[in-house]
Design goal:
The chain is α+β, with helices and mostly antiparallel strands. It has helices at 20-32, 120-155, and strands at residues 2-9, 41-50, 53-60, 63-72, 76-83, 86-96, 102-112. Strands 1-7-6-5-4-3-2 form a seven-stranded antiparallel β-sheet, covered by helices on one side.
Length: 156
């Protein structure tokens, strides 16, 4: 099993200061339409919506994947990959660091079909997945900053 968790400070001095509400809106938007946020996802269709979440079919690195997405408002978006060659969970979690400032943590626990646990192929896959998810988190925060900046400009 590949398990990785990384935390990024939300307000790193680049652009407008984001609130937990701002970050939450970005995470929900990314769950509903990940294409602008995750370069390795080329298609997304939301097949079902339910109170507190949705089911989506995506194409991730050229392979079909089904995910059950559950929203825990202003705290966490939980993804369960139920179909595809890489199954497991992904979490995007908003928290407050030791200084009380917002942080965004992504954690994934994925099993990849045909990949030997602990072997060199799994290590390579884990490194690529980590880079992909780190990029997605940074892209999400940038998109949220851009949206907040535009809203601020139009309010003036």
């Amino acid at each position: 099993m590949i398990e990785v968790s990384r935390t990024l400070v939300v307000n790193d001095g680049d652009g407008p200061v984001l609130t937990v509400d701002d970050v939450w809106e970005g995470l929900v938007d990314k769950a509903q339409n990940p294409l602008p946020y995750v370069a390795s996802i080329s298609e997304c269709t939301v097949t079902e919506r339910f109170d507190g979440g949705l089911v989506r079919d995506i194409v991730h690195v050229g392979r079909p994947v089904r995910e059950l997405v559950t929203f825990y408002p202003k705290q966490r978006v939980h993804f369960v990959r139920t179909h595809g060659t890489a199954r497991g969970t992904i979490d995007n979690e908003i928290g407050l660091g030791d200084t009380g400032r917002p942080e965004l943590t992504f954690t994934f626990r994925i099993v990849v079909d045909g990949v030997e646990p602990g072997g060199p192929v799994e290590k390579d896959v884990a490194e690529r997945m980590e880079a992909d998810y780190l990029d997605a988190v940074r892209t999400t925060l940038k998109a949220v900053r851009d949206r907040v900046a535009v809203a601020s400009d139009t309010a003036e």
